[in-house]
């Protein structure tokens, strides 16, 4: 539904050799503010080997569209991306840090908790690994 779908509706149908009409109903479409923005990472936990690829995904629990996304890294004023996913190819040391996603519906803005991305060198094991 879109906001412009608000209005008065009825239905008409052919019943027993005659056209019949329902009562009018009023439909009001309300905008639901954006909330529940969260991040996930592939590989999980945001730990990625030097030179590998990292994909961050931003999800929204509630909010009516159209939604716009923006990606930010703490300490950098640069806009990193504008879609629900942020893909970083060939991760380097300078890609470590805390990433956030901001979502707007044009009226309200919500932001995810930060996700810490750690770039691991060849000698650093991933969390939970024995190597």
UniProtKB/TrEMBL annotation:
UniProt cross-references to SUPFAM superfamilies, sorted A to Z: Immunoglobulin
Record InterPro entries: Ig-like_dom (IPR007110), Ig-like_dom_sf (IPR036179), Ig-like_fold (IPR013783), Ig_sub (IPR003599), Ig_sub2 (IPR003598)
Domain Ig-like: 33-118
Pfam families, sorted: Ig_3
Domain of life per record: Eukaryota
Protein known as: FCRL2 protein
Organism the protein comes from: Pheucticus melanocephalus (Black-headed grosbeak)
């Amino acid at each position: 539904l879109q906001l412009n779908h608000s209005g008065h509706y009825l239905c008409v149908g052919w019943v027993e050799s005659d056209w019949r009409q329902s009562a009018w109903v009023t439909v009001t479409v309300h905008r639901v503010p954006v909330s529940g923005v969260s991040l996930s990472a592939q590989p999980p936990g945001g730990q990625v080997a030097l030179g590998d690829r990292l994909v961050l995904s931003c999800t929204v629990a509630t909010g009516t569209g159209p939604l716009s996304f923006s990606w930010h890294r703490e300490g950098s004023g640069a806009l990193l991306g504008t879609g629900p996913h942020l893909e970083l190819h060939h991760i380097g040391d300078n890609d470590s840090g805390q990433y956030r996603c901001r979502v707007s519906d044009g009226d309200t803005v919500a932001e995810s908790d930060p996700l810490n991305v750690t770039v691991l060198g060849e000698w650093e094991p991933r969390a939970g690994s024995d190597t």
